[in-house]
Backbone:
């Protein structure tokens, strides 16, 4: 079963990486860009066919390792 | 106009960060996980209402700054 995990910085938390990328885009002439936020995108395979179990395990993985839930949000999608 | 950009490592390129995360997940007892690939997820706003122009500008941003097209693929979505 293929899983896609998205980890994003919470809305009220500063994103210095996003600010840096926005500054770089402005320097390159892309002045129309604002509010850049950078997150992580993960693809992983799970050796299981039980969707409910996969969701529960993925949630645990996100909470324990993949996301820092103090400052980050996560969501995931399961396929197949 | 809101844009979402996904940058992923090309399939035939090694992903050491993904391997490290996979190892950590295994150590934590998530043995069913394999083939972990880590990419970037970016959200940005564009001050334009012209979708065709936005697509062209986003493609240029990805090629110039957001992705290293030698080892990474990118794709993006536009909303609104």
Residues:
């Amino acid at each position: 079963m293929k899983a896609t995990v998205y980890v994003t910085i919470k809305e009220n938390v500063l994103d210095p990486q996003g600010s840096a990328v926005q500054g770089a885009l402005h320097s390159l002439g892309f002045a129309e860009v604002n509010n850049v936020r950078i997150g992580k995108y993960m693809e992983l395979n799970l050796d299981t066919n039980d969707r409910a179990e996969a969701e529960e395990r993925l949630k645990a993985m996100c909470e324990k390792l993949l996301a820092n839930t103090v400052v980050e949000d996560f969501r995931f999608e399961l396929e197949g």
